[in-house]
Write a structure and sequence with these properties.
It is a single chain. It is built from 6 helices and 15 strands. It is of the alpha+beta class and 319 residues long. It has a domain of 200 residues. It has a 5-stranded antiparallel beta sheet. Strand 13 and strand 14 form a beta hairpin.
Length: 319
């Protein structure tokens, strides 16, 4: 029986708490070792979830990538085996516990793609709806961020050694805490132009420096403060999301968007809806259309689309 209705159509969050009692063990190299709840050796963790890579590669064992640290020409696509896109940054116990977030990430990517295709293709008059727990999507993005940055130096801050996620981030990942007020998922009103965005995904860590406020509430930035990861930018088929682990300036940003509606002007009876819900911010059924295009397409054309027509005009907190 579906329990979403009793939860105001917010799906229950996936479980990431390691099974059994705490081990009290710390495994060097595991970015969650300060729990302390490690067990087993370091394992091959896919920072960008294997489920996502398999979907993007259409089930093949290789995928084209750009802009990785080790690539000499970062703009030239390189074909590489999915099994090689790993980092040993989690012990076996913690890696296994976060597998549910990897599965969630794969379903989320598939849902975004399905919504785009449904609204672009000619067909019977019908709508399709996809529903996700927004806290899960945020945690999946946080897992990607930690996997991309953990246990290596931040570019430009190499003298400070390897970076490790803060303990409160680990508590969020494993379901022991929620995001601080103003932190979590955002959607930009003005999307970032990306090359080949129509059929690609982009994962880009966001960096910043911490600052304090003076008595007039003006920011005081210390030149001695190290640069550190503060969030993640994700582009899925030119659909843009950002995760912020510290409250950002909200200009031109939507906080925790609960509804994305996709449709074509020539086919108003065939729309797709992507719903996100949080316990304190439940799913909504109707709202602003933020993605829209003109003209019906063939399936081949639809799979090569660039979704760049955004109709969000100004920042809003609720939609």
């Amino acid at each position: 029986m579906c329990v979403c209705k009793s939860r105001r159509f917010v799906p229950p969050p996936v479980l990431t708490i390691p099974k059994g009692p705490k081990t009290g063990i710390k495994v060097n190299g595991c970015y969650a070792k300060e729990s302390p709840d490690c067990y087993g050796p370091l394992t091959a963790e896919h920072p960008i979830s294997r489920t996502v890579l398999k979907f993007m590669s259409h089930g093949k064992k290789t995928i084209n990538i750009t802009n990785h640290r080790w690539q000499e020409n970062k703009t030239e696509p390189t074909s590489i085996g999915i099994s090689r896109l790993t980092a040993r940054v989690l012990c076996a116990r913690h890696n296994s516990s976060l597998a549910s977030l990897d599965a969630l990430g794969g379903r989320f990517i598939e849902a975004c793609n399905a919504c785009l295709l449904h609204s672009a293709l000619a067909g019977p008059a019908e709508d399709t709806h996809r529903l996700f727990n927004g806290f899960d999507v945020e945690r999946w993005m946080l897992k990607v961020l930690c996997g991309l940055c953990a246990e290596q130096p931040i570019i430009g801050e190499e003298l400070d050694g390897k970076w490790t996620p803060p303990s409160d981030w680990i508590s969020i990942l494993f379901g022991a805490a929620g995001f601080a007020p103003g932190c979590g998922l955002y959607m930009p009103a003005i999307p970032t132009e990306r090359p080949n965005a129509k059929n690609s995904i982009y994962m880009k860590p966001l960096y910043g420096q911490m600052y304090r406020l003076d008595k007039n509430l003006l920011p005081i930035i210390s030149s001695g403060q190290r640069k550190m990861p503060i969030g993640l930018e994700v582009s899925l088929f030119d659909l843009h999301f950002r995760l912020f682990m510290y409250p950002p300036l909200r200009e031109s940003l939507f906080y925790r968007p609960r509804l994305h509606k996709f449709g074509a002007e020539e086919n108003p009876t065939r729309s797709a809806f992507l719903h996100l819900g949080w316990d304190e911010r439940p799913t909504i059924i109707d709202g602003t259309r933020v993605h829209k295009r003109s003209g019906l397409l063939t399936e081949v054309e639809a799979r090569g689309l660039a979704w760049r027509e955004h109709y969000a005009s100004k920042p809003k907190e609720k939609r």
